[in-house]
User: Which sequence fits this backbone?
């Protein structure tokens, strides 16, 4: 095996581990056994994964929720009362309705955008 002198950087052949004097400068170089000096690069087990606890998951439990309230009833037509005969009846989106009982014209009070009919 070849070793390099620590003093003069001269390479010289040695038989193995031991102490050798440099043939150039005479310095003693200690040669270690390099064949068993390199340990395995990676040795060991895999890192333990953190424990995942599965089980009770907080959440909404169905079955205890009250039903949604029904939508408020919306009368499609307003109801008015005839001032002449007192008959109550439904009218549409009209300003003046005709009483179906006495045929009197009754103002419904509903503001309707009417087309001017001069
Ligand atoms: Zn040397
Ligand atoms: Zn009437």
Assistant:
């Amino acid at each position: 095996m070849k070793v390099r002198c620590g003093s003069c950087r001269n390479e010289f052949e040695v038989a193995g581990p031991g102490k050798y004097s440099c043939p150039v400068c005479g310095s003693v170089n200690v040669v270690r056994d390099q064949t068993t000096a390199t340990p395995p690069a990676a040795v060991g087990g895999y890192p333990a994964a953190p424990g995942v606890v599965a089980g009770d998951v907080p959440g909404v439990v169905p079955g205890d929720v009250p039903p949604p309230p029904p939508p408020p009833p919306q009368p499609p037509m307003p109801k008015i009362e005839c001032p002449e005969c007192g008959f109550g009846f439904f009218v549409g989106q009209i300003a003046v309705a005709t009483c179906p009982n006495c045929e009197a014209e009754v103002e419904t009070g509903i503001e309707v955008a009417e087309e001017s009919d001069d």
About this structure: The pocket of zinc ion (ligand 1) is lined by residues 5, 7-8, 10, 22, 24-25, 27 (CB under 6 Å). The CA atoms of residues 87 and 108 lie 13 Å apart.
